[in-house]
Specification:
The complex is a heterodimer of chains A (100) and B (473). Chain A is of the alpha+beta class. Chain A is 19% helix and 36% strand. Chain A has helices at residues 27-30, 82-96; strands at 2-3, 8-16, 34-42, 46-47, 51-55, 61-69. Chain A has a four-stranded antiparallel β-barrel with strand order 2-3-5-6. Chain B is α/β, with parallel strands linked by helices and 473 residues long. Chain B is built from 18 helices and 15 strands. The chains are: A alpha+beta (100), B alpha/beta (473). The interface between A and B is large, with 44 and 64 residues.
Chain lengths: 100, 473
Amino acid sequence: MKAKKGDWVCIHQIVLRPEERAPQVPEDTKTVPLELWVKGFALHEAEIGQEIEIETVTGRHVKGELREINPGYSHSFGKFVPELLQIDKQLKEILYGGEA
Amino acid sequence: MSRDLSYAAVMGRRNEIMKQAIGIDYSVFESGGISFDYERMMREAGYTLEEIQKIQSDTGVGNTPIFELKNLTALARKCAPKGKGARIFIKDEAGNPSGSFKARRAANAVYHAKRHGYKGVIAATSGNYGAAVASQAAMQGLKCIIVQECYDSKGKGQPEILEKQRACEALGAEVVQLSVGPELFYTFLTLLEETGYFNASLYTPFGIAGVETLGYELAMQFREKVGRDPDKVVVTHAGGGNVTGTARGLIKAGAKDVEVVGASVDLSGLHMASDKDFNRKSFTTGHTGFGIPFATWPDRADVPRNAARPLRYLDRYVLVKQGEVFYITEALAVLEGLERGPAGNTSLTAAFALAQEMDEDQIIVVQETEYTGAGKHPLPQLSFARENGIDLRFGSPEEEKPGQNIMLPAHPNMIKVRDFDLNKAKMSYVKNCINNYKVNEISKVDLEFLVKDTKSDDEFIINALKELGVSVI
């Protein structure tokens, strides 16, 4: 997939390699890099996975690996959690159902 | 231009970077030792209540409604001994632009930045403060970058934090997302250096002063609506700004007898910088991971002297469990018709339990709520927890183990508060001061400062110092 100049994209960077991380990070964090993601307008054409330079909405020019074109939002109201309905039922019973 | 961008080099430049980015000379408030002139700092580097009221009024912030939660009060009375069950009220800070009380801090910070000629503002936050700053920046015509810690090493982002990214971007800000780690601060410093923008820190004098209007308004609203001051005000505690600002506002309104209770979600056992633990908690803020460190060493923030000093104002500090907060969030929706974000209900959860210790004619107020939406809601937060191997079920909140399970209380009468020993926190703070300044004797001025900063007395501090082998000259 190719991004054209001007496309809205998301890029990725490795900011600090594991060995460059802050001395106080715990063991599990020490073994992984510090990563960065930011969105902007592609300043030139590029393929997913290639290095690309973008202009962010504040006008900064940032280089990174092209990850996504037209990035959207994937968070939602999640999956159904039956326990919440049980709470609703219990609350109404306690307040209005005659429970002492 | 080639700046050394290594972690150590950037951290080494932090003082200069901060000085450029905040525009406050903190050195004039220093004594050279442990103490500094806090009230002078708040006076000179802050804004007066009237000035803040004007700034906030111009930006649509504040004057949020107070609701009496009659059904939650009735529920608390069903769980309480006879005659107990104070009236529970809530101040709907979700009504602010951007949906939380953080707008009060952001309004001031952005105003200050604009007044001093900065072209943009930067804030490091995975929380509501980001959207608040973005919203104010949009209103006041400044550029905005929000730096947030969002993903673990597997690229998994918590729904609550993803929603905050969306909100900030919707408001026109640039959002820089990072994987887990304290080096967020390092990235933040590099961006400040690169852009010359203002550090819209949560911990500046004017940031904290922005919250004073919350406490002041609350007192005024109660006098008008109910005819007296509330008995207790419950404030969610993380970095200490909420507690400090609210308490100072109450004091400015002359509401000196109101008990200020801080509340945090208990996440003990989880390491805040751990890649593995990051997505095993269901609260991004308002929890002990911030609450305890910031109480016992406030000057760990991104400014030389933190204006948020919770031990100076807290009368009591209580902890609640994750499951309890989700339960109360559900109760607020189905019993009071108020759908609000879970993290914003931490102090409501504490108030529900605390009300049961109080008499029926007493009053307890929860001073905030937050907005809700995709991600910022019990459904996505709980289903995300489940997907990540957290055992979600009904049971006893006392059996909740952060990172392993979330215990929804099997009955609302199981919702409790657990006191965090403030004396222990105060002792820790004194110890941290001594260790940080590496002294074995302190001046009377320092003693006076420590007494004020811990809301204690000479005897308490002198005993604490004795245990550390430190004398007062």
